[in-house]
Amino acid sequence: KLFREANVLYWAKALLGFVYDFINHAIADASDPPPFAIPQVRFVEAGLALSYSQGNSKSTLKTGTARTAFLLEEVIEGEDFTKFIHNMDPDPLLDPDQDGYDFALFLAFMQHIQYAKTGGLVYISDYQGNTSLLTDPQIMTHSSVSEGKDMFGGGNIEKAVNEFERRHVCNKFCKWPGFGLKTLGGGLAAVKALGEGLGVA
Question: What is the pLDDT of residue 56?
């Protein structure tokens, strides 16, 4: 389980770097800069620590056998710890009047980039932490990626990937022309956007 969690963090860091590369290239190629600041965030540094048996006459374990494993993560300090996006829904968990809502919109936009640029195969979800450091993400993949193997744990929910285009609500980041992203959302997303416009929760 801990190896899988470390693997998820490894892939999440790679996907986050992929997003920032896309954003930086798009802004560099645009005639005008975007009318908003780009938040700078990263995932915590982490590593696996393994405890090995030293072996002795009373031990049943051979010398060099791994006894215990620990996942060590960088401490998140400062701001309150917040869950921004759940792995079952690509929309922010925060309300528009809550602190961190704009940052949550940026995370939803990052999901849009990951989904679009991988051809609907993968994106990061379960965003949590603060506006500088994130931790404990989930990698969401299309069923064709894992081919029935449990690559990223139980939080990798195929149904959420299949419904991403319908449930994602494009925001100001997604809609900036310089990024050239196709507008997603229909069905539930359209109903939700209409409800918010009318002041209905």
Answer: 64
